[in-house]
Amino acid sequence: MDRKTADKRLMRIIQQIAAGNYSDEIMELTGPEYPANVQELAEAVGMMMVKIEAREFHLEQLLERIKENSLKTVTSIAVALGRRDEYTEGHGERVGIYSERLARRMGLSSQDVEDVRVAGILHDIGKIGFSDRMFCGEDTAMSEAMMLEIRSHPQWGHDILSGLDYLGPVLDYVYAHHERLDGRGYPRGLEADQIPMGARILAVADCFDAMTTDRPYQRGRPAEEALSILGSMAESGALDPDAVEAFMEDIEEHGMAD
């Protein structure tokens, strides 16, 4: 190959590499059919490309470890928050289990199933902003201020997690898990298709676990009674009917979470 043609090809490949389009094409220019200066420059660029790829791979691994560690930290906080109140201990973990099972039964992708599971664990992290009176464990009449705290916790949860942008749709699920299909939920009054499916699934799992565990204001209900109430909530426009139906089937097949 003549020098002019070889130089043009070399420059084209270098421009591609500079743009982040790596390939083994640069190594073809190290063959004996190319001029010596082209061979030498191609070898140097090829070595540089390999080193860049290695560094990028290392950075990607480092970023994944950072994401994993930060998620573990936030999850630990959510679990610890549940232990602040004997009545809600284990609630997040169980909602995560129910949500994962329901998402899988409804045919969501593996990534969507994982996002719903994580959202289930983290859905109440906004309660970290609750005052101590909300965790006293006593049958205290709800004041207007206490109701405002309760209705604010999805917003607080979204705000707490918003810095972890890699969570993606998990943020939306946490934000919308108390919305209702009829638009009477909170904190934004979303309705119907405005509510993401992950949040609809989470809402069903959350309601069921809340009803079947002891709370200061009520004893845990049997599964059959809780499922019947879920059915009524679906009929009234509070919950997604398809999600409720699938959840009933899942509980019948797999039982309650430990």
Write up this protein.
The chain is 64% helix and 0% strand. It starts with a helix and ends with a helix. It has two domains: 3-55, no CATH class; 84-254, Hypothetical protein af1432. Helix 4 (91-105) packs antiparallel against helix 5 (110-122). The protein is mostly helical. This is HD domain-containing protein. Residues 66-258 form the HD-GYP domain. Pfam families: HD_5 (PF13487).
Topology:
Layout: H1 3-18, H2 25-28, H3 36-83, H4 91-105, H5 110-122, H6 144-161, H7 169-175, H8 197-212, H9 223-236, H10 241-254
Protein name: HD domain-containing protein
Domain HD-GYP: 66-258
Averaging pLDDT over every residue, what do you get? 85
Low-confidence stretches: none
Largest sheet: none
User: Over all CA atoms, what is the radius of gyration?
Assistant: 27 Å
The structural class is: mainly alpha
Categorize the overall geometry: elongated
- CATH architecture descriptor text of the largest domain: Orthogonal Bundle
Output the CATH homologous superfamily of the largest domain: Hypothetical protein af1432
Classify the helix fraction into a percent range.
Answer: 55-70%
Highest CATH level, the class of the largest domain = Mainly Alpha
Beta strand count: 0
CATH topology of the largest domain: Hypothetical protein af1432
Protein name: HD domain-containing protein
Pfam family, one: HD_5
Domain HD-GYP: 66-258
InterPro entries: HD/PDEase_dom, HD_GYP_dom
